[in-house]
Amino acid sequence: xxxxxxxxxxxxxxxxxxxxxxxxxxxxxxxxxxxxxxxxxxxxxxxxxxxxxxxxxxxxxxxxxxxxxxxxxxxxxxxxxxxxxxxxxxxxxxxxxxxxxxxxxxxxxxxxxxxxxxxxxxxxxxxxxxxxxxxxxxxxxxxxxxxxxxxxxxxxxxxxxxxxxxxxxxxxxxxxxxxxxxxxxxxxxxxxxxxxxxxxxxxxxxxxxxxxxxxxxxxxxxxxxxxxxxxxxxxxxxxxxxxxxxxxxxxxxxxxxxxxxxxxxxxxxxxxxxxxxxxxxxxxxxxxxxxxxxxxxxxxxxxxxxxxxxxxxxxxxxxxxxxxxxxxxxxxxxxxxxxxxxxxxxxxxxxxxxxxxxxxxxxxxxxxxxxxxxxxxxxxxxxxxxxxxxxxxxxxxxxxxxxxxxxxxxxxxxxxxxxxxxxxxxxxxxxxxxxxxxxxxxxxxxxxxxxxxxxxxxxxxxxxxxxxxxxxxxxxxxxxxxxxxxxxxxxxxxxxxxxxxxxxxxxxxxxxxxxxxxxxxxxxxx
Length: 526
Ligand SMILES: Nc1nc2c(ncn2[C@@H]2O[C@H](COP(=O)(O)OP(=O)(O)OP(=O)(O)O)[C@@H](O)[C@H]2O)c(=O)[nH]1
Ligand SMILES: [Mg+2]
Prior knowledge:
Blueprint: E1 2-3, H1 10-13, H2 34-43, H3 49-52, E2 64-70, H4 77-85, E3 96-102, E4 135-140, E5 152-154, E6 174-179, E7 182-187, H5 190-203, H6 209-215, E8 217-223, E9 230-232, E10 243-244, H7 249-253, H8 256-279, E11 281-283, E12 287-289, E13 297-300, E14 322-323, E15 331-338, E16 344-348, H9 354-361, E17 379-384, E18 391-396, E19 423-429, H10 435-445, H11 448-452, E20 456-462, H12 471-487, E21 490-493, H13 502-514
Parallel strand pairs: 1-12, 3-5, 4-6, 16-18, 16-19, 19-20, 20-21
Antiparallel strand pairs: 2-8, 3-15, 4-13, 7-12, 7-15, 8-9, 9-11, 10-14, 17-18
Domain Obg: 91-341
GO molecular function: GTP binding; GTPase activity
Pfam family, one: MMR_HSR1
C-alpha cells in the first residue's frame, strides 16, 4: 500500500518518470500575433496516419496492461453488508464510505472579434476556457470518523473564455478532509457491484456475497510504466473537437486551410490526451493516509480549458470562426476506509470484559453490559503510566465469536482497526468452561498463528475474582499460562471489575506497545 507522508504532492506520489510533453509546443500567451501563432502551429506535426485511426484516448497503445482482480478488491464487503443489514449503526461512527467524485470539465474557448468605433470587425480576441476544478484529499487530526463525508463530491467546471482575450475562471476545487488513518482506494460503483452480484446469484442460488466477491473477477486496465501497479482511469471521449460560430462545420471541412489546421490540432489533442493518461492513474493498492498532511493531494484532476479563436489567427486564417471545447473531467468512485491506529488492540469473545478493562486503564468510557455484543463500534483509549510518563493507545473492538471469519456475529470487519496495531491483547474469561480453548478459537478466527505471530501478544485472564477459591479456576489459568508460554507470550490474571492486578496489566501492556515486531515472540508450537 502506498503510504502518504506529510508534504507529499501527487506529482511525487503517483507519477514517476518523465512527464510527457503537455503540448506538442507552447501555445502563445494572450495577445498572440499572427506570427506567434504561425510558429506554434508550425511546430505541431500532423499525426502519423497509422495513429490517426486510433482514439485520442489511446487505450490500445501498449502502455496499459489488462489484469484480472477479484471483485472483492474493488468494493467493500463491509459497505455492502452494512447497507443491506443496517446492523452496525451506532451513533455517528462511520468507518467505511464509498463516494462519487467528479472533477470539473474545462471551459470552452470563445469565438470573438475585436470591435470599436472605428472597426466593426477586428482581429480575433476570444479567450481560453478556464480549467475544471480538481478533487483533493487531505488527512487531518481534527476528525475522528468519516461521518461528515458526503456521498458525492463534484468540482465546478471551468468558465468559458470571453471577448478581449479574457480567459475563463478556473472551476472551484473540492477538498475532502478525512481522519488520519484513512485508506483511499479506487472502487467500482456500488450499483454496478450489486448488478454483478445479483447476476451471479441468479446463476447459482447457493452463492453468497462473500463467495461471489472472492471468486468473480473483473478486468482492470493498469499502467505498466512504473514498478507500482496503478489503475488507468479514462475520461469520457470528447463529443466534438471544434466549436464553430456563424459558419457551419461543413463550410470549414471543405477548406484546405482548415483541413491542414485540423490535422495539426489532432496532434495537439493527442498530446493533451497523453498527459491526461499520465496523470489519471491511481495506485491499485490505494493511498494510506497514515499521517496528518500539510498539503492535500489530488485525486482527480480537472479538465483543461479549450483554446479561444485568438490562437488561430495566422496570415492565411484572418477570421477564425472556431475555437476548442474544454477537456472533460473525470468521474470515479472511491472507497474511504478508516483504519484507526491504536498501539494495542483488545481481542476477545463477547462479554469477556474488554470494555471494562479499557474503562479501568484509560479515560475512555465504552459501554459495558452483561449481555453479548455490548460494543458495536471501536473505542480508543489513551493509557498513561503516570505523570510525565509514556502513553500508549488501546482499541476496544466488538467481540469475536466462533465463525466470525465466516461473517457470524459481527464478523471480522472491525479487525481492520487493530490491523496496524503493534500488539494484540487476547482477553479471556476465566469464568468460562475452557479459556484455553477460547484462546485457540480466537487465534484461528483472527487468521491463525502465523498472522498472530506478526504482533506482540499479551494474554489477559479476566474475571479472576469469580470462583477464586475454586481450584478448578486456578487450573484453568495454569492451562492458559502454559499454552501462552509455549508461544513465548506473557500471561496475566486480573479482575477488571475489582481493579485487581490492573497496574501490572498496564505495565505489561506498555511493554507490548513499545516492542517492535523484531523482538516479537520466539518460535513456538500449537
Ligand atoms: N465478575 C467480574 N465481572 C466482570 C469483570 N470484568 C467485566 N465483568 C462483567 O462482564 C460483563 C461484560 O463486560 P464488558 O466489558 O461489557 O465485556 P466486553 O468484552 O466488552 O463485551 P462485548 O462488548 O459484548 O464484546 C459486564 O457485566 C461486566 O461488569 C471481572 O473482572 N469480574
Ligand atoms: Mg465491549
